[in-house]
């Protein structure tokens, strides 16, 4: 980021564009993390159910 106001004015379009690109990309990254979190949570639920069934078999 420029430290003086003239440089900021000179680069306002570039800085604005970079910021918008950054925000778009970070939001995409967060959505990706959320999708993976949901997938891993579902996988853990399924593995827990499978393990529960295994423990029931061992009690027979």
UniProtKB/TrEMBL annotation:
Superkingdom of the organism of origin: Bacteria
Protein name: Uncharacterized protein
Source organism: Primorskyibacter flagellatus
């Amino acid at each position: 980021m420029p430290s003086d106001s003239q440089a900021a004015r000179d680069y306002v379009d570039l800085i604005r564009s970079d910021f918008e690109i950054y925000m778009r990309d970070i939001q995409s990254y967060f959505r990706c993390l959320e999708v993976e979190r949901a997938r891993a949570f579902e996988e853990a639920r399924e593995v827990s159910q499978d393990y529960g069934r295994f423990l029931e078999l061992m009690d027979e």
